[in-house]
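This protein record is not my work; I was only asked to verify it. The record follows directly below this note.
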Amino acid sequence: MRTLRSLLAVVLLATTAASTPAWACGGCFVPPIDSAAPILQNAERILFVRDPATKKSTVWVEIRYSGPADGFGWVLPLPKVPKVGVGTSYLFDRLDLGTAPRFELDSLPSEGCNFGGGSVGCGSADSAGLSATAATEQGGGGGVTVLQHDQVGPYDYQVIQGKTADDVQNWLNTNGFDTPAKAKSVLADHVAKGDVFVAVKLATGKGVDQIKPISLEMDDAEPCVPLKLTSIAAESDTTIQVYVAGPGRAIPKNHLHVRINPVRLDVLHGAKNYEQVVAAAIDEAAGRAFITEFAGEIPTVVKVPAQFAFGNPTEEPLVDYTAIDTSGIAKTKTVCDALADMQIRKLPFTKETVSIIDPLFKFGASAGATDLVTYYKNLNSCPTNAQTLVDGAALAAALEKEFAGPLRDMTKALTTLGAGGGAKGRFTRMVMRISPDEMTRDPVFAFSGTLPNVSNVTKGGYGPVCLGDNQGQNGYRVTIAGLGSWLLANQQQSDGSNLPNLALDPRMTKAPAALTVELLDETGDPIAVDASQIALADQAIAGAKWGAPSLPQGTVLKAAAKRWTPPASDAVVTTPSSGCIGGTTRQQAPWALAALLGLTGLAVHLRRKSR
């Protein structure tokens, strides 16, 4: 796999293992501006929740896209006609903060050094747009019926149904969705099932910066990761993040499961090679596998990174309902009063809320601000006439419809998951990196009530080491919990630091990226897969469905040999006879290494423990 160029994060939430209609899986079809450089789906996140009381299923789909507005297009097959609205990206970001993988390295006593004690629900759609009365499309693509055609948020969407794959493909091409020939077989599968297709484009006058999640509400449906259709316009390497909430720990049924080997990570430099190690680990499992990054109780609080390098992250509620209470805004009469109410309540200033606020306030526009989110976050006083009037009720209604309402409804549905059955649901975060040619099956997930939780925090330690007679600090000890503790020599890095890279230690360079390759099922322990049978296991589970064993009857795997044994831990460097007291000192890291990294949300924290 090549270096990551896109992120496809799929969030799936289900509340029951009962058999219900499956969500069809979607993909991005966009008209190529230049055939030599087609526009590709840049990123996607999906949030799915099923209300056990009403049996309503709601899915939020967020498209991240780079390209011109008239080049944006997205098609999602569904088993039933949905109610279409809009959601908010803010909830996606908060869920990521609550479950992203983190490394916490405690400082260790120095070894052999004489430091003398020093330190080194969703947006609504009008009922007119939800009419069950269908009209045959007259504008091209015979054999296609348009079931809905409306606008919501920044989108113009149509829900269509066709008699044949040719009918659907012709309609899509006629209406500005580029569907290559290889899409026909996938479309045919959905047409044969009687699926409908939601075709979405940006409405006239709407820009790429206004793209936000789409909300689709249906009766009684289950989630599906859209790999087959995603492959039509996916980039050469795609990261898929799957969040599943339900009655047990979520597991992949028709994909293998791997555990990443932490020694392959450059933990002292923010584990900045995490995505590459994930890709390598999955490649070792036939290219089709998931890694569980977190499994446990559904997060109600999240850790927000510190503003400065050495600060500790702060804990906040997943969503602060006080902050999204718009009742006070509705009573305001001037722009300054409205802004003051937002600041007092700590309303999140996001791309979505600012896009509603600034056209009315015109603060950022008048100040010439290019980054409106940062501008409003740092705004300390009202920069315009305090008597400038605003329709507070209309402003509150807009925030309620396109931000606060969907956020409140979906968060409550998520955090109360399982309450009706008397048991709290479990939340699972999984990651996969995959190339289009490997997207040959749509992942199927089930739940295990016996598999243990998985912490998103990996523990370890680090400390300075002085080797040789000069007693100069020339190395570090790096410890990874459960694996070992090793001495590493200093290495000059491109960022100017003098820290070793664990992944480049000669003892680690040949270590596999996958600590284990295994099969998971609803019942029983994980089944380790021998390296010689990975391809066999991958093909054997290709048709696995939940409720039945993943391995077909009669398929027997041999006992797996251990993939890798960690190198023996290095002995502690003794304190020299000259009276060095390094063995009792603790050293605070003088470099900025606490960081929340890009697409994966991976964080590494180095901290000094008090004696």
